Amino acid sequence: PRILVLASGSGTNLQALIEAARERDFPGQIVAVGCNRPGAFALERAAQAGIETFTVDHTGYDSREAFDAALLAAIMKFNPDVVVLAGFMRILTADFVRALKGKMLNIHPSLLPRYTGLNTHQRVIDAGDTLHGVSIHFVTEDLDGGPVIAQAEVRVDPSDTAATLAEKVQRQEHILYPVVIRWFCEGRIQLDGHQVLFDGAAL
Ligand code: GRF
């Protein structure tokens, strides 16, 4: 399978996937990395790994629809089997999401359905939660609301700050995302309506 990664920032999840994909038995190939921010470090990481990159700068479009149409066209040139959002910080339109239905995964730094949106680590601390984590889900039309495929938990200690929690969560992200992408490439995970099937059975 052909994997296309979209990122906006530092690209540590991209890096984890690049490393996983170097393993001899990895079932997929990263064919391109797309970005909405020129100069993002994720682009550098891709280039270092010899992966093709493209940038569709959202500031050059006057509507979300126009940006998404341009992004989708750029993506389709690579004919991907799976689109992996790895810190891609744009809200996507319904048309865009529909075009990639069942083929697009996102990673979100919370135990969904808790804490959709931004600043999840601080919100977890403010709420006094003792459990936090990361979720990987299919992207559907609701923001951070698509069916969850897998989660990893981290404990929140009294001494944790948003920064230490972010570190703990990211450590789990870098383990979990490559595993889930491997499963997807092996054909083990499918979106069936609003349900995730794993090896053909509902999760
Ligand atoms: C991750 O924490 C991910 O959960 C969130 O954005 C961050 C991306 O980090 N959606 P990186 O660019 O992979 O380092």
From TrEMBL:
The active site is at H108. The keyword Mitochondrion does not apply. The record marks D144 as: Raises pKa of active site His. One of its GO terms (molecular function) is phosphoribosylglycinamide formyltransferase activity. Gene3D superfamilies: Formyl transferase, N-terminal domain. Its EC number is 2.1.2.2. InterPro entries: Formyl_transf_N, Formyl_transf_N_sf, GART, GART_AS. It holds the Pfam family Formyl_trans_N. It catalyses: N(1)-(5-phospho-beta-D-ribosyl)glycinamide + (6R)-10-formyltetrahydrofolate = N(2)-formyl-N(1)-(5-phospho-beta-D-ribosyl)glycinamide + (6S)-5,6,7,8-tetrahydrofolate + H(+). Residues 2-181 form the Formyl transferase N-terminal domain. SUPFAM superfamilies: Formyltransferase. GO terms for cellular component: cytosol. Pathway: Purine metabolism; IMP biosynthesis via de novo pathway; N(2)-formyl-N(1)-(5-phospho-D-ribosyl)glycinamide from N(1)-(5-phospho-D-ribosyl)glycinamide (10-formyl THF route): step 1/1. (6R)-10-formyltetrahydrofolate binds at R64, M89, R90, I91, L92, N106. PANTHER family: PHOSPHORIBOSYLGLYCINAMIDE FORMYLTRANSFERASE. NCBIfam families: PurN. Belongs to the GART family. This is Phosphoribosylglycinamide formyltransferase. The lineage of its organism: Bacteria, Pseudomonadati, Pseudomonadota, Gammaproteobacteria, Pseudomonadales. The gene is purN.
